[in-house]
């Protein structure tokens, strides 16, 4: 939401808006991390693994965005926002066991990183038999 506000109200490009929100996110996440470490509720081993992998993903993502035009960044951003809005509006009566292609993205409680491999493996098993 903050990225969209920077673009609409302050006339920033998407790259400027994303960079600005990242600085805000780094500060707020740093404060939250310090509070949780101080309260001793952080699994440091897991946190380091996640932190390193997210850092490497951010580096890769940053390099990819440098290669894309502003038009493509805008399209990707709008598609992501519309997809998340659609996800919020989907009916809640869907069962998690419905791994069919037409309802793959409608699995509101199952992240796509979990749903897609399960769905794909069921397709693969059907092809083999």
Estimated share of beta-strand residues: under 5%
Low-confidence stretches: 104-116
> Which value, in Å, is the CA radius of gyration?
19 Å
For this structure, the quaternary state is single chain
- The coarse overall form would be globular
Would you count the extended β strands for me?
0
Taking the alpha carbons of the first and last residues, their distance comes to: 47 Å
Which sequence of SSEs, written as H and E, runs from N to C?
Answer: HHHHH
Q: Give the biggest sheet.
A: none
Could you characterize the architecture of this molecule?
74% of the residues lie in helices and 0% in strands. By secondary structure, the chain is mostly helical. It has 2 domains: 1-89, no CATH class; 91-129, no CATH class. Helix 1 (2-10) packs antiparallel against helix 2 (14-38). The longest helix has 25 residues, at 14-38.
List keywords for this structure.
74% helix; 129 residues; mainly alpha; 2 domains
Q: How does the SSE layout of this entry go?
A:
Layout: H1 2-10, H2 14-38, H3 44-67, H4 70-89, H5 112-128
Helix pairs in contact: 1-2
């Amino acid at each position: 939401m903050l990225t969209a506000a920077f673009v609409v109200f302050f006339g920033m490009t998407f790259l400027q808006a994303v960079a600005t929100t990242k600085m805000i996110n780094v500060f707020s996440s740093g404060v939250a991390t310090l509070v949780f470490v101080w309260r001793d509720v952080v699994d440091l081993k897991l946190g380091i693994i996640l932190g390193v992998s997210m850092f490497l993903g951010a580096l890769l993502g940053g390099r990819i965005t440098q290669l894309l035009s502003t038009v493509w960044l805008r399209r990707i951003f709008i598609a992501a926002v519309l997809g998340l809005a659609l996800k919020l509006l989907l009916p809640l009566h869907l069962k998690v066991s419905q791994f069919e292609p037409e309802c793959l993205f409608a699995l509101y409680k199952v992240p796509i990183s979990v749903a897609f491999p399960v769905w794909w493996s069921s397709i693969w098993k059907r092809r083999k038999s």
